[in-house]
Amino acid sequence: MTHYCVNCGAELVTRVIEGREVEGCPNDDFVLWHDPKVTTAVVVEVDGGILLGRRAIEPGRGQWCLPGGFVNDDEDPWDAAARECMEEICVPVEMSRLIGVYHIAKRTAPSMIGIAYEARLADESRPSPGLEMLEVRVFALDSLPPMAFPSHQNVLDEYRAAKSPVQAGAEGSPSAGVVAQRGAQPSPAPAPSRPQRKQ
Predict the structure, then answer these.
(1) Which domain holds residue 125?
(2) Considering the domain boundaries, does residue 172 fall inside one?
(3) Is the pTM of this model over 0.85?
């Protein structure tokens, strides 16, 4: 696909900057940087299980996924995660911790930076499917369906690792049960193991 300079309209040419081939203008300093999109995914705990939605749209229509979506350019990821839950599962949530940050490689689209949070329902509202979901359902951790996206499976693997018996023994620790306020920065979680890149 041909790209053009936003300043002068000239067709971009290949340039080498910091050892990388990029598209740049032959007349000025404009460079077309292919930056990753930023997206969120939320593990919502409900009655000892995990709330998932079955997608009503492509990609992955008919398959199960975590609620979440893209972060707007003027939006904090923490707030974006809460907004996406309202849109997709129609209930307010309270994020409790950061699960991890992931690079999601794509072959036919810009790569993504995925930010995953753990959350719980904020009140007694019953989840229901938003416009992008066919249905929502709570699954036990040991009977989760196949995920629509490998990145969501990575998030769930990290979540389950944190909920292992060794970690679960920390129930009486000072951090247990603490809910961060919306818009506040989450406490740093232990560095997650680097997820394997999916081809």
Answers:
(1) 37-167
(2) no
(3) no
